[in-house]
Specification:
The protein is α+β, with helices and mostly antiparallel strands and about 55 residues long. The chain has one helix and two strands, in the order E-E-H. The protein is about 55% helix and about 30% strand. It is elongated.
């Protein structure tokens, strides 16, 4: 899933690059929903393992 589009890249004197990204509104909600689902499942697994002890 491509969630962002590069807008600008700046190189500092020390060789570090700064990259500006913009998240497309149409892609933000599905990405947020996916992240929420993953975190909810991880919490469920953590709770189940903690209660098993």
């Amino acid at each position: 899933m491509r969630a962002s589009q590069p807008r600008a890249a700046l190189q500092a004197d020390n060789g570090i690059h700064t990259l500006a990204l913009v998240i497309d509104e149409d892609q933000h909600r599905p990405l947020a929903h996916y992240c929420h689902s993953v975190l909810r499942r991880l919490k469920e697994h953590y709770t189940a393992r903690a209660q098993a002890r």
